[in-house]
Hints:
alpha/beta, about 25% strand, Rossmann fold, about 35% helix, single chain, globular
Amino acid sequence: MRVIAGSARGRRLKSVRGRHTRPTTDRVKENLFNIVGEAVVQAQVLDLFAGNGGIGIEALSRGAAKAVFVDKDRLCTDMIHTNLTETGLLARAEIYTNDVFRAVRILGQKQRQFNFIFLDPPYESGLSNKTLTEIAANNLLAADGIVVAEHSSKEEIIDFTLNLIRVRQVRYGDIILSFYRIEEDELEDLRMSRQL
């Protein structure tokens, strides 16, 4: 695995061996960031089930303002710290060794919001749908933001949950990226409330 573009371009990222981690492949990562494009610049990023931190690190390399990494495995978060240090991106990162659902609730209580949220739970674990619902329930997505869930093609994933609606799906072999935004009706309510 390597950083594909930006300030840390070409830097190799280390992964924890034999821990059932499955880093997002360079091909999928490159296509993901081609789709997201310039929206990542100056973005607040949340990388859930972060593994070796590859997605959040790529976002920082491409100009994201800040990235928060969450993984419950201490070996993974230690590896994220190492990768951030070696890419020179540690100063713009926060790393939490915590259960994802607990971390999402804490971030919600702190009223944190993110422009780009990525989740990559273990395939076919049923955690994608639950995580999407928790993100929506805790109001973590900024009005102009996007959530991307990486999952197996064998996994049924929801079309919508609370205020999040799926707007796109892209398939790469057995891997699918599902993209979610705040539903238009919800956005209109937000705009109206700001005008009052």
